[in-house]
Amino acid sequence: MEWTRPLLAGLLAGLLALAPTSRAADDAAGDNPLPIRFGILPIGSAAESREQWRPLLDDLEKRLGHPVTTVSVSSYAGLSGAIGDQRVDIAFLSGRLAIQAVQRQHMSVVAQFVRNDGAKGNVAMLIVRADGPVHTLKDLLARPGQLRYARGESLSVTGYVAPEAEVFAPRGLNSDTFFASVRVGNHQNNALAVANGEVDVASGNNPDLDLFRRHFPGEAAQIRVIWRSTLIPSGVLVVRDGLAEPLRGQLVAFMRGYGQAPGAAGERERANLARIPDLAGFAAADNGVLRPFIDLEFKLMREQAAHGRWVDEQARDARLAQIDADYQQAVRQLQRH
Description:
This protein is of the alpha/beta class and about 325 residues long. It has helices at about 5-15, 45-65, 75-85, 95-105, 135-140, 155-170, 175-180, 185-195, 205-215, 215-220, 245-255, 265-275, 290-305, 315-335; strands at about 35-40, 70, 90-95, 105-115, 120, 125-130, 150, 180-185, 200-205, 225-230, 230-235, 235-240, 280-285. A six-stranded mixed beta sheet has the order 2-1-3-12-4-13, sandwiched between helices. Strands 8-7-9-6-10 form a five-stranded mixed beta sheet. α2 (about 45-65) links the parallel β1 and β2. The protein is globular, with a radius of gyration of 21 Å.
């Protein structure tokens, strides 16, 4: 089961205790306050994500009196690298990125996204072209080695982990070998590839598909959803542990309270939130909200181990026992933060 090891390694690395660092000048705002560095998980393009967040961040800058700079990158790995290098003070993350940030990169969850329908989650999807050869999940599974697939990065919960854990691994399949070809991209580009007939199947999620419908209504009309996952918790806001008070507390209070004010001020803030796909506000949360993501990760590992090729049952059972032990350790590590 060599191909499962990167998944396990990513989580186990989070169990290493590292001493947090901080910017020495955090305490000295003075006449030249340090910027708040805001990391943005890209929805669509990095430039589009920056534009969506800009009105909220402008309000943050005015309220706290600190300039706000954005760390907006084109990939999950790029944002994770920026957080690991301590170049981010607060970030919008999901799933595996959030787990890494909490367990390895000295960040803590302070809030969870609330969708504009009140839900605190979304669903992963598999989409196809409506007039293509695949109409159902059963059709897809009946065509090993015949279809072209576009998926998200391995750090993406909806783009990779959820489809793998709930569709492929339970059937003893690996999407990277099941399909004739696999390409990796963001949800918007993958949906466009389906509409244009460049691939047959793509992973995605409901917020990104809603955004795609707004930007490309003609192409979106050609897309069919053939599978939806169980509900996946929404993304979270994480804040750097080394960020000094009172700035840290002010930052958390601002984000949690944004869009909650009555009257015209609240309406304006809610309009700014609406620029970010499906976002209505930020509910107070802590690291415990990441537990479902850990559950999903280890579900995938268990399925891969259970359906893998082993020398004998004893080797398989030993692997499953190790995964269960690692899962318990990961949960304890989350609870200690």
